[in-house]
Amino acid sequence: MTSLILYGAEPSPFVRKVRLALAFKQLDYELIQVFPFNPEKPQAFIDNSPTGQIPLLAFGDDYITDSSVILNFLEREYPEPALLPKDNIAAARAMWFAEYASSKMVAALGGHLFAEMYLARAFFNREPLQSDIDLALNEEIPEIFTYLETQLNSNYLVAEQFTLADLVVGGMLVLLKHCKVKCDANKWPKVAAYIDRVHALPIFTKIIDEETEILRSYGLDI
Ligand SMILES: N[C@@H](CCC(=O)N[C@@H](CS)C(=O)NCC(=O)O)C(=O)O
């Protein structure tokens, strides 16, 4: 079987997205630690990540950049178990939620909340921007919860089955867990139950436990 090497670091939500997909498809891989802001990087990463961003996946001698492209590749190369439903409209809906999570959700939960709460001091050597944290908590996250509440009509986001949508949305919601931010079940009952349901799945419990341990080892109060 062709070897898989993932270049990246656990705190990245885009790396988590790929790790969850690899776990879902039960694929073994090696994780080579790359922190984008650390100038010391493996030569293979420097040569094959044109943007310098993580994650980067090596599939044998080939390199694939960008988490969405990597997930698309994994779905084509390893079709079972499937992340996309067979129905084209359901598949498009799953891809939409993955896109929403990778843009709108990551900006709020990753950029404004997690990065400011934890990474600012530990990695960027500066004080957190409280205005960004407040924006995320008071405006952006409630808006995301309200949207998701309107979209949840079964246990999962699309086609009453676990899909790409739940993998990526659930993956981004792990940022809230790390930040100890809970969804108010009185305001958003479906979302609160959904978060508990998805995060109780074995691929999520494993990654949440691993990340918690790693982030604590960096000195973060997770
Ligand atoms: N669209 C990219 C975004 C990846 C991304 O933004 N990675 C961040 C870490 S979470 C990074 O490498 N940042 C460093 C930089 O932008 O120079 C993907 O989905 O893989």
TrEMBL record:
Q: Which residues form a coiled coil?
A: none
Q: Where is the GST N-terminal domain positioned along the sequence?
A: 2-82
Residue ranges of domain GST C-terminal in the record: 87-218
The residue range of the signal peptide is none
Q: Which PANTHER family would you find in this protein's record?
A: GLUTATHIONE S-TRANSFERASE OMEGA, PTHR43968
Q: What is this protein called?
A: Glutathione S-transferase family protein
Organism annotation:
Thalassotalea psychrophila
